[in-house]
Amino acid sequence: MSNAEHWEGVYRGKPVEQVSWFQPRADISLGLIRGTGLPADTARVIDVGAGASVLVDGLLDAGYRHVTLLDIAESALAMSRARLGERAAQVDWRVGDVTTLDLPAAGYDIWHDRAVFHFLTHEEDRKRYVEQVWRTLRPGGFVIVATFGPNGPLQCSNLDVCRYTPEALHDEFGAAEYTLISHQSETHATPAGKTQEFVYCYCRRAA
Question: Is domain 3-205 annotated with CATH 3.40.50.150?
Fold first, then answer.
């Protein structure tokens, strides 16, 4: 089964409110994005692995007008389109694998990813991901990546994952290329009543 088939099955198999990573609000991500200080009406934001996340709702509410949503599962993005209604026309929708998809060079000011990177258990996939960030993020742009922390689960959606400390996650991208501005942990409560440790790293690409 391909990655796309796996994730299509996940989103078609249960209501989005029951997947383990569901958030009724994306407050941490939205706060970090707004914390960049970039003007909402001009900042170009990409949300990688956006799925059916409500982050886009918060971004549009906050006045962001250049938002790209990327996910490998078309069915997940379809849920967000339906939820947004007429506002869906304000979003750039992209379907594909982040490690191979053709994205615009220097096309984004802010790269956001909550819960994609930790699924990249092979070094070559992580390398392609990091190269994609470098190619598509403008110099001086911001990277916000959240993964399972050291005490997070070993698997998610029946797939193995990698767990990271903030320092280890930063090292994956390169200390010389990205300055670690801040990091924080989140205890995420799943719809099933379990808790998961997430680590958020907030970096800036060298100008």
Answer: yes
Per residue in 84-100, pLDDT (tens digit) is 999 999 999 999 999 99
Distance CA 21, CA 42 (A): 29
The DSSP string of the chain is --HHHHHHHHHHHS-GGGSTT--S--HHHHHHHHHT---TTT-EEEEET-TT-THHHHHHHTT--EEEEEES-HHHHHHHHHHHGGGGGGEEEEES-TTT----TT-EEEEEEESSGGG--SHHHHHHHHHHHHHHEEEEEEEEEEEE-TTS-SEETTEE-----HHHHHHHH-TTTEEEEEEEEEEEEPTTS-EEEEEEEEEEE--
Q: pTM of this prediction?
A: 0.97
Which amino acid, one-letter code, is at 4?
A: A
Rounded to whole angstroms, how far apart are CA atoms 107 and 85? Answer: 26
pLDDT digits (tens, 9 = 90+) for 156-189: 999 999 999 999 999 999 989 999 999 999 999 9
Domain residue ranges in the chain: 3-205
